[in-house]
């Protein structure tokens, strides 16, 4: 029996064909994986199946849900189907949840509006649904908002919203992107359990082949709005027939970085016994505000030309440590030295000179690039650290050289960020970091949201730049395969402390600390997934 049957689905927006000739079928209780690179049409497919396409979109073909045709159906039909029939989990729960409503109220609203429950019944159903997705009762309380919980918990809330009315089909659009490996494993286990217990069909949209292979019995490969290959997951990924699928499989697992000797020299970056505390909200008016220790006595070094990985779960303290190393937050104790000079407590002129030696590339190029500025102005921003006034010609020369170094064109300086793909925007962010010719670049989850082929391109770029310029990297990531591909040494951080450190191959192949062993075991593996029975 087929629950969802899609035949010849096409979507045109603004005169441009975005989807063409899509054929899909999903049975009750079945998990279908939909895989493709950024821009392939995965998310647009999800919106089309849920009737959430933008105004002006022209849709052709057929989408039948439980035998009912939805293409051309009135709004009333779609409102009836959504929620009870089809639920959807979006990629970024921080934007999918209302920041002005408590967690419990948001889930209760779904039951109240779509099921006609009373306020008391809706609250009870919300609490039960939140418990069902593994959230404690405290999260459903009257005073908890989305910003007060972790990313993994927010994703569980988004899933609770989608399954509150027990839909027959759940569409999960990149539900684990940018989550750490243990949180990702928990979310995937939750989705698999919901599908198995409730007989709910699941369409899992992802660019992560290991995630899809571990959960989906069938897979469809999407490229440029068309399905180029589909079939049993094991058959498609073990022996892909289409060249595009073969490229996805080839690029999915980055090759380990070759072992190399790093010259012994005084550390370029040295942190000693760093401590960073945050004051938490008071639980009662007259009580003292409690402290949370985000970084607890961390010491580390990065030598010239060395590539060091820093791994750990969300909330382990990685980003707080990075901010302290950059001098963006003052620690309560400890010291940071750059090229032998103290950064904390340094004069403004000294801090400016030292910051030129260390630059940073953040996770999200959408948020780190000013959409109102041309690329040339964005890349030129760090040149202020050089002191004095560079001539306009020299600024242009440096900006254009940095863009060319990262594989873009000099003429791209005149374009706006929205004119570039996600991978190209990350190249712009890297060019901005390189324009002042630093000796160390800190990369904070710089490839976590990129698909496999873009990730492979950026990693190859980073390795080439390191070799050509003698750049040192501090590579912050939750993706152990990425850390293995670009680093010489790895530090493992948990609850604000470094719990294990050593050569990358030794730490990841023979982990000593139980926490590192847990991280390695939770990391999705395409080979393990394909070897599992029933795939």
Description:
The chain has 535 residues and is an alpha/beta fold. The chain has 2 domains: 249 residues, 3-Layer(aba) Sandwich (Rossmann fold); 257 residues, P-loop containing nucleotide triphosphate hydrolases (Rossmann fold, 3-Layer(aba) Sandwich). 37% of the residues lie in helices and 24% in strands. It contains 21 helices and 20 strands. A 6-stranded mixed β-sheet has the order 6-7-8-3-9-10, with helices on both faces. Strands 16-17-18-13-19-20 form a 6-stranded mixed β-sheet, sandwiched between helices. The protein has a 4-stranded antiparallel β-sheet with strand order 2-1-4-5, with helices on one face. It is globular and about 70 Å long.
């Amino acid at each position: 029996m087929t629950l969802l049957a899609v035949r010849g689905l096409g979507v045109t927006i603004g005169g441009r064909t975005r989807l063409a000739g899509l054929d899909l079928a999903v049975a009750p209780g079945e998990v279908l994986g939909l895989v493709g690179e950024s821009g392939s049409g995965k998310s647009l497919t999800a919106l089309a199946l849920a009737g959430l396409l933008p105004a002006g979109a022209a849709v052709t073909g057929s989408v039948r849900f439980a035998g009912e045709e939805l293409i051309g159906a009135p709004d009333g039909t779609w409102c009836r189907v959504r929620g009870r029939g089809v639920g959807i989990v979006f990629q970024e729960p921080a934007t999918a949840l209302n920041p002005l409503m408590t967690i419990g109220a948001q889930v209760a609203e779904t039951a109240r509006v779509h099921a006609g429950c009373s306020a008391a019944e809706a609250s009870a159903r919300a609490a039960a649904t939140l418990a069902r997705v593994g959230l404690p009762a405290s999260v459903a309380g009257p005073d908890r908002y989305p910003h007060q919980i972790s990313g993994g918990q927010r994703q569980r809330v988004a899933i609770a919203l989608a399954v509150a009315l027990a839909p027959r089909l759940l569409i999960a659009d990149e539900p684990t992107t940018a989550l750490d490996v243990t949180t990702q494993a928990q979310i995937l286990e939750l989705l698999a359990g919901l599908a198995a217990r409730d007989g709910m069909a699941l369409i899992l949209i992802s660019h992560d082949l290991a995630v899809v292979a571990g959960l989906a019995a069938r897979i469809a490969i999407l490229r440029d709005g068309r399905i180029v290959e589909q079939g049993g997951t094991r058959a498609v990924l073990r022996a892909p027939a289409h060249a595009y699928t073969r490229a996805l499989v080839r690029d999915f697992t980055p090759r380990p970085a070759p072992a190399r000797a790093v010259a012994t020299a005084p550390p370029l970056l040295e942190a000693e016994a760093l401590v960073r505390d945050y004051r938490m909200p008071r639980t009662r008016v007259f009580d003292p505000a409690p402290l949370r220790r985000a970084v607890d006595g961390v010491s580390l070094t990065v030598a010239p030309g060395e590539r060091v990985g820093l791994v750990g779960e969300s909330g382990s303290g990685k980003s707080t440590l990075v901010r302290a190393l950059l001098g963006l937050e003052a620690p309560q104790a400890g010291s940071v030295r750059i090229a032998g000079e103290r950064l904390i407590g340094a004069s403004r002129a000294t801090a400016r000179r030292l910051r030129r030696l260390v630059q940073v590339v953040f996770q999200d190029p959408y948020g780190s690039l000013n959409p109102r500025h041309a690329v040339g102005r964005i890349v030129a921003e760090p040149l202020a650290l050089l002191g004095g006034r560079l001539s306009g010609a020299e600024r242009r020369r440096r900006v254009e050289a940095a863009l060319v170094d990262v594989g873009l064109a000099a003429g791209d300086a005149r374009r706006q960020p929205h004119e570039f793909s996600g991978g190209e925007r990350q190249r712009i962010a890297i060019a901005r970091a390189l324009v002042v010719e630093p000796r160390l670049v800190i990369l904070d989850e710089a490839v976590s949201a990129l698909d496999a082929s873009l990730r492979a391109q950026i990693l190859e770029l980073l390795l080439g730049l390191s070799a050509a310029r003698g750049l040192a990297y501090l590579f912050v990531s939750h993706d152990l395969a990425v850390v293995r591909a670009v680093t010489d040494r790895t530090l493992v951080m948990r609850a604000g402390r470094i719990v294990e450190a050593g050569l990358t191959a030794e730490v990841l192949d023979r982990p000593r600390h139980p926490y590192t062993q847990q991280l390695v075991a939770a990391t999705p593996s395409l080979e393990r997934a394909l070897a599992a029975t029933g795939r």
